[in-house]
């Protein structure tokens, strides 16, 4: 029986890659994102490739707790019994000292990266408990293990996410539900483009002269965790490119050749 997988931030990057990977594995996917047009296009792509009722697109701002609960409650069959929640929506804004972060940037990161995950847990876990089946996968980061200059707020949100994941498993003790954090290092997506407000030159420089992970690499890790035998709970899976060491060290140029 295929899983029903609810994916936030599914319009691009890791979320879209997870949608394609789960669909290719025979699962059904609910694609949730603020960009309704983009998730609708992805749903059409997946339904054409894998058959009708493979994908469902829903418009969702994860920072809106009431909307999150409403979207989950209104899911139609055969998407209404969610087995796996991939809580992926997240972002960083700016790369400046913490005292220079604007209140808007702080709110965006905390509301999306922390409250958005909590909203997903609150909306999805009760029904999983009622059915005795479920798995919450949050997309963390190596930024949850180390702090780097200019990333204080973002790193703090990812540290919080790891605490939420660990605490969720504690709260689920004695139930059949699983909780996992998949924490990637440097991944080449539109993450930096969002961080730098559309400055493509600055975003491209983040990935220049190195060999970063792809969104597909992270999606492979997520699918592995979700498809592991039911007796297995991967508490956290750290995934970094070979060029990255010690969370904040990335080989570039000649040093990165062959890596």
UniProtKB/TrEMBL annotation:
Annotated InterPro entries: NAD(P)-bd_dom_sf, SDR_fam
Classification via Pfam families: adh_short
Residue ranges of the TM segments: none
Domain of life the protein comes from: Bacteria
Keywords: Oxidoreductase
UniProt cross-references to PANTHER family, sorted A to Z: ALCOHOL DEHYDROGENASE
Entry similarity comment: Belongs to the short-chain dehydrogenases/reductases (SDR) family.
Name of protein: SDR family NAD(P)-dependent oxidoreductase
């Amino acid at each position: 029986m295929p899983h029903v997988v609810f994916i936030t931030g599914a319009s691009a990057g890791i979320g879209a890659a997870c949608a394609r990977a789960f669909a290719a594995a025979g699962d059904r996917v609910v694609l949730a994102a603020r960009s309704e047009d983009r998730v609708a296009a992805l749903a059409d792509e997946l339904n054409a490739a894998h058959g009708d009722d493979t994908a469902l697109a829903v418009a969702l701002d994860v920072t809106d707790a009431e909307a999150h609960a409403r979207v989950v409650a209104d899911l139609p069959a055969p998407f209404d019994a969610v087995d796996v929640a991939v809580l992926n929506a997240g972002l960083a804004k700016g790369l400046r000292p913490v005292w220079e972060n604007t209140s808007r940037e702080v709110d965006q990161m905390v509301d999306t990266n922390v409250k958005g995950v909590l909203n997903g847990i609150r909306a999805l876990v009760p029904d999983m408990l009622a059915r005795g089946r479920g798995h919450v996968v949050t997309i963390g980061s190596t930024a949850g293990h180390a702090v780097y200059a200019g990333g204080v707020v973002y790193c703090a949100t990812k540290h919080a996410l790891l605490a939420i994941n660990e605490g969720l498993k504690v709260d689920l003790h004695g139930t059949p539900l699983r909780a996992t954090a998949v924490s990637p290092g440097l991944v080449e997506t539109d993450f930096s483009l969002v961080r730098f407000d559309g400055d493509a030159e600055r975003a491209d420089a983040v990935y220049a002269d190195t060999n970063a992970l792809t969104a597909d690499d992270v999606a492979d890790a997520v699918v592995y965790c979700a498809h592991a035998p039911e007796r297995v709970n991967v508490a956290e899976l750290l995934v970094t490119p070979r060029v990255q060491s010690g969370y904040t060290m990335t080989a570039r140029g000649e040093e990165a050749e062959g890596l």
